[in-house]
Amino acid sequence: MCHREEEKPASPETAATFLRNVVFKAIGLFVALNLVWGGGGVAAKPVERVSLYNLVVPGRLRFPFGEDPIRSYNMSLSSLEAMFASHIIAGRPKSQSEYRVIIIGDSSIWGTLLKPDETLAGVLDQMGLRCGDKTMRFYNLGYPTLALAKDFLILRRALGYDPDAIIWSLTLEAFPRDKQLTSPQVAGNRLEAERAFQLAQLDYSFGDTPSFIDLLYKNSLAGSRREIADVLRLQFYGVMWAATGIDQFYPSSYPPALVDFNDDLKFNKWEPRLLSEKDLAFDLLEAGFKIAGDRPVLILNEPMLISQGRNSQIRYNFYYPRWAYDQYRELLAERAKSSGWLYLDMWDKIPPQEFTNSAIHLSAAGVKEYARLIQKDLSDSLCTLTSK
Amino acid sequence: MIVRLWVNEKYKIPALAILSIVAIYILQPALPIRYLDFWLPTTALLLTILVWITIQPTGIQSLRKNLPGLLLSILVVVAFAGLRYINWDRFLLPSSPPPISGIFFLLILFASIGLLANQIRNRSILLGAFLALIILVFVVIKTPFLAGFASSTFRALNQQAVDLASPLDIRWLGFSYLAFRLLHTIRDRQSGKTIDVPFLNYLVYALFFPAYTAGPIDRLERFSKDLHRPAGKWQTDFLDGGKRLALGLVKKFVLADSLALIAINQVNAVQVNQAGWLWVLLYAYSLQIYLDFSGYTDIAIGLGKLVGIHLPENFNQPYLKPNLTMFWNNWHITLTQWFRGYYFNPLARWLRSRSVPVQQYVVILIGQISTMVLIGMWHGVTLNFLVWGLWHGIGLFIQNRWSEWVRGSLMQRMPSGLREGYGNTLFYVLGIFVTFHYVSLGWLWFAISDPGISMTALRRLFGGG
């Protein structure tokens, strides 16, 4: 009977039945696979933990970031799990002789247009600074977005790698409260950020709480396909990183940082006015100090370009009108003093010619000078505090 | 699937013809020269028509019998051109088609050429002329200098900026494969074979959409038989075709595209800091090019099966072959068979039939090197592809001589136990290893357009500076 049926030429009815069965089975398998994956994904993101870095290829000296992957062998992704898994800090056990210092901050710490060994962490590392009988090793945990919430999340994770001290590089652009949740590392790690804010009793909210179904979809294969693809691509770029040592595209020329401006007085949509601590995310900074516990934290108000061009009497540079930046410096200094924070204000310490394509990006020579200027304070303050 | 399941068998060929014509327009990438992305597929179609008329034994008489098919294909072109007037062009075409008057002008021009050609009683002149024309077009689009010149000319005719002309402006999707299909039928006709296939059959053969962009290069006789073969069990074809399609998609879009991120190229070849990593990048390229190309073939074969056409295989585990000859018998099989049938064998016969006898090894040397150089040039008329062709031509010759020596001398001296036992296996495995590495090193010339960089990379692979 069956045999005779198989021999029959296809009729529209049998074709429809066959196709219906294929489609139903495919949908069933697809849904089941996604549910299984999604269920596991809510508890833990398995793919993001898998990494060839520190295993097959060396860990990166700074976080993965790049808008031009083909040329930089590097790419941006939001998963903190995957970012840390690819970093050298995740693969280098701390030895007895190591004094581990992590540096967090923005693109000026990450090192836009700089090779890994030209960044602040790279230069300080090469100085061979010592703390007692230990050698100070510096880890670049900067990431090129400006938000203290992003720094806070990175710091939380970095504490798991047992740092002895923390350097936190700051600039006003990272402070406005309304900017804190828009960084990809914060928005892309929403659950982790919410948990961190809750534990630190910080008042930041993404708005509506996602439903279980939303979470399930987001963690399913279909919902997280982009994240999975990103993590897999990052592994391939790891091979190129190992093969070439390149993790950034270095153009032969670039537009220099602006020095002439319109008479624009606004900062972050604010007209000139008196700023208070409530406008700025000092609570995140304070929370960072709290979670650091006994570890010494040095905050640096990072150097910036002070332009001498058109309208420089009202703007320091592309980012900041003078009224806003002056108040920020004052507020930060006062807060550091009242809270007993280690604080270095380096805002005007590097000459304008040592800035590259932005008012906060230093040249290699600029970084060297910066490192030379803070070197003594590192040994004196961080190391002394640790000894105590 | 619709063609297979719901189109009546007698409308299968017209349906495939329409699909194939539609596909060549949709698949053609957008080009910066105005309307060229419409003119190129149109020219492919019209060239196919002209070649078909030329190879027909009855010439213009065939036109009358095949008028419905011809009109159908012209109608599809006119319908595409008409999309411009209902603003649907952006959904189906890479850019807006030219005004309909231009299309009619081109159709009239080609019709006139067809009618004029038909007046020429001596078929061999016509066949020779089309052969030369196709080769000329091929050389122009594959030679950067000539393609650049053609781009400048088209730009000037279109009143576009000539200084922006680039060889990349003339990207004629699928022409490499179309040319080989047309040349094959012309050469068969020249050699006296009677080719009497209905127009739509020929059109589907030349422009068959699954194989249009990346092969395989089928033969007309085989394809025609398949086209008229009673449809088998569609469930089997769907299952096999679906599996093959899925395999091809994974090979191409998951594996090959991922490996492309680390495959050796002109830029990274000079950036790599250690020989070991350079080998990794080279291996990645070897795998990537195989998975990419064989993936496309799987997609073509799978799609073909869905519509009931069984395209020939193009790859058969080429990297697991113990010598270079076997590699080339299993890599891009339809292309090598084409060259063997239409170039190598006729050349070898000609050389052997010379009044002054030519040594066998000289025949092999000339035949293999020139064949491989031509295969290299098929990818592009540039120095790197020339060197790649020479690399393989010389390799094939050396392997041929080595095999002769091994058979005639080494094997005789070897103890029979070793010859037939482990020794044989060892030779086989060693052969695979050497062949794979020879082919992989050859990819240096293929992947890198600057032979100087390829040479430096070759030196660095072996520890040189």
Descriptive labels:
heterodimer; A: 388 residues; alpha/beta; six-stranded mixed β-sheet; 15 helices; 6 strands; globular; B: 465 residues; mainly alpha; 21 helices
Strand content of chain A: 5-15%
The string of secondary-structure elements of chain A, in order, is HHHHHEHHEEHEHHHHHEHEH
Estimated structural class of chain B: mainly alpha
Whole-number radius of gyration of chain B?
24 Å
Query: How is the biggest beta sheet of chain B arranged?
Result: none
Helix content of chain A: 40-55%
Distance between the termini of chain A: 90 Å
Number of E-state strands of chain A: 6
Measured by DSSP, the beta-strand proportion of chain B falls in under 5%
Describe this structure in a few short sentences.
Chain A is α/β, with parallel strands linked by helices and 388 residues long. Chain A has helices at 2-7, 12-43, 46-49, 69-72, 80-85, 107-110, 120-126, 148-158, 184-187, 190-199, 212-219, 225-244, 282-292, 322-339, 364-387; strands at 98-104, 130-131, 134-140, 165-170, 297-301, 342-345. Chain B has 465 residues and is an all-alpha fold.
3D structure, described in words:
- The complex is a heterodimer of chains A (388) and B (465).
- By secondary structure, chain A is an alpha/beta fold.
- Chain A is 44% helix and 8% strand.
- In chain A, strands 2-3-1-4-5-6 form a 6-stranded mixed beta sheet, with helices on both faces.
- The longest helix of chain A is centred in the N-terminal third of the chain and has 32 residues.
- Helix content of chain B is 71%, strand content 0%.
- In chain B, helix 8 crosses helix 9.
- The model of chain B has no long low-confidence stretch (mean pLDDT 90).
- Classes of the chains: A alpha/beta (388), B mainly alpha (465).
- Chains A and B meet through helix 2 and helix 12 of A and helix 13 and helix 14 of B.
